[in-house]
């Protein structure tokens, strides 16, 4: 997601004293939050979801004014945010993410007497979340990273995005009140504002992990700061992607018009300001889709971009693409700036032959955050798997359009090595909030290959702790014999090691 953390609106910078106070409040809340039973923490997440839904009219009105995004898009995103919180509430109650393991003492263990060893995942401590600009609800104050960190029983300090400061304050106030009223300790949810404040909090020794959704440039700077601390901390950054699409000759022949309509819809939605927007589309030369694509693009009205700085970056990136050698227009699109510096864009679709693109791809491989895509027209016998392995490092998504008659096994395997999500016969925009979802990928899509969507996102904010021969009264609840939280426990009984390997011999 290519947004910059540069200040874009006049907003008060959180003072150093307030940064210090916020860090200490989060630190003080951490033990009390971790000790709360899952029923209390899960109910608090649901209470937060309900509070957001109850205030949807006011929240959406503020978001529309600050971001220029459409009401329907924002209402859907706010609903998604509430659903995500409820999903994590069920995750908390399930308890599988704690990975509780109990190895009972065994005097006859295969390697000599074994002590009683028990392990489970525990909260990392205060988490700093850098809110995103293009998802003012789903990846912002109460969005996915915050939900996952809270579900893992960590206090959260959110650094507001400068693109929607009033919405950030509004959401943070609702969230803090809902969580405290539900029984969570004061300091569980806090907001800071300003670039300097965000960096200061990232460097604070009481902060134990950080998450970020934004540009590669800003994300790399913040990741380096997190790594350079006297005690480095995990930094989970989702940084951007061109999300390549590969269409086989059979797919284009079978459903070309539908492909053209889907492509334009995916590229132009929310003015292309989505981290999963398809930026490069590989399809057969002579595809015959120029007219269908041009007609679909012409039917898309202009859409305001998030803020003047995003529009400025898009304009520069678009000009660089237009000036690349061998590029031809299919849908020229436009970008205009109004009297307030806001940019208004319509979709731009271009094409370039593979033999022109392949020797010098760098100018066209950089993510351009806005409604633009490039078709790379390829000979029918092009080895897409080799192309993917050769040109791409890490992507959030790879999409394949094919027919049942075509063998795309090699391409699918290559896609799995390069992306966190591999789609077939669809479009990457729209990330379902569901347990199995993965929204991540190898560098530079993310800093670590993890996911920021789906229940596996909770793992980023947990760490494993083992207890050896621990007295029963000091064991955390998930590891006690009476299992008061009712979480799944993997138990290795005494005597088990004598049979290790037997199933493999069978």
From TrEMBL:
Q: Name one GO molecular function term.
A: oxidoreductase activity, acting on the aldehyde or oxo group of donors, NAD or NADP as acceptor
Q: Which residues cross the membrane?
A: none
Q: Which PANTHER family match?
A: ALDEHYDE DEHYDROGENASE-RELATED, SUCCINATE-SEMIALDEHYDE DEHYDROGENASE, MITOCHONDRIAL
The protein's name in its UniProt record: Aldehyde dehydrogenase family protein
Record keywords: Oxidoreductase
Q: Note one Pfam family from the annotation.
A: Aldedh
Q: What is the lineage of its organism?
A: Bacteria, Bacillati, Actinomycetota, Actinomycetes, Glycomycetales
Aldehyde dehydrogenase domain sequence ranges? 8-441
Lineage: superkingdom: Bacteria
SUPFAM superfamilies given in the database record: ALDH-like
């Amino acid at each position: 997601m290519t947004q910059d953390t540069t200040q874009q609106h006049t907003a008060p910078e959180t003072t150093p004293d307030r940064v210090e106070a916020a860090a200490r409040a989060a630190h003080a809340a951490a033990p009390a939050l971790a000790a709360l039973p899952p029923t209390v923490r899960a109910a608090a997440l649901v209470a937060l979801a309900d509070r957001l839904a109850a205030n949807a009219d006011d929240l959406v009105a503020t978001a529309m004014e600050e971001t220029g995004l459409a009401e329907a898009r924002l209402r859907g995103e706010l609903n998604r945010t509430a659903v995500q919180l409820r999903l994590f509430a069920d995750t908390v109650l399930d308890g599988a993410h704690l990975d509780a393991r109990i190895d009972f003492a065994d005097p006859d263990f295969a390697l000599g007497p074994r002590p009683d060893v028990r392990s489970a995942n525990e909260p990392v401590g205060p988490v700093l979340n850098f809110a995103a600009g293009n998802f003012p609800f789903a990846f912002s104050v109460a969005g996915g990273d915050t939900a996952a960190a809270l579900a893992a029983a960590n206090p959260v300090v959110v650094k507001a995005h400068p693109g929607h400061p009033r919405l950030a304050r509004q959401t943070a106030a609702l969230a803090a009140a809902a969580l405290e009223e539900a029984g969570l300790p004061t300091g569980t949810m806090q907001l800071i504002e300003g670039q300097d404040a965000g960096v200061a909090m990232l460097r604070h020794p009481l902060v134990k992990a950080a998450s970020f959704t934004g540009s590669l440039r800003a994300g790399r700077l913040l990741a380096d700061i997190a790594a350079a601390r006297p005690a480095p901390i995990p930094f989970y950054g989702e940084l951007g992607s061109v999300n390549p699409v590969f269409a086989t000759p059979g797919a284009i022949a079978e459903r070309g018009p539908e492909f053209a309509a889907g492509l334009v819809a995916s590229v132009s939605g929310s003015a292309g300001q989505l981290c999963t927007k398809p930026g490069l589309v590989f399809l057969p030369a002579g595809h015959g889709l120029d007219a269908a694509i041009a007609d679909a693009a012409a039917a898309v009205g202009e859409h305001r971009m998030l803020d003047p700085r995003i529009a400025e970056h898009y304009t520069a990136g678009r000009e660089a693409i237009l000036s690349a050698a061998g590029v031809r227009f299919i849908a020229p699109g436009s970008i205009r700036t109004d009297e307030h510096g806001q940019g208004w864009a319509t979709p731009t679709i271009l094409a370039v032959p593979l033999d022109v693109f392949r020797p010098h791809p760098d100018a066209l491989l950089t993510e351009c955050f806005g409604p633009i895509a490039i078709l790379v027209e390829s000979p029918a016998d092009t080895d897409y798997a080799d192309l993917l392995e050769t040109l791409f490092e890490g992507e959030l998504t790879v999409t394949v359009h094919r027919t049942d008659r075509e063998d795309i096994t090699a391409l699918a395997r290559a896609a799995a090595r390069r992306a966190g999500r591999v789609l077939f016969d669809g479009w990457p925009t729209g990330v379902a909030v569901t347990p199995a979802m993965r929204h991540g990928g190898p560098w530079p899509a993310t800093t670590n290959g993890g996911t920021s969507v789906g229940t596996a996102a909770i793992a980023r904010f947990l760490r494993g702790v083992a207890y050896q021969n621990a007295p029963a009264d000091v064991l955390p609840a998930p590891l006690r014999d009476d299992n008061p939280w009712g979480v799944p426990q993997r138990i290795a009984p005494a005597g088990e090691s004598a049979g290790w390997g037997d199933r493999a011999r069978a």
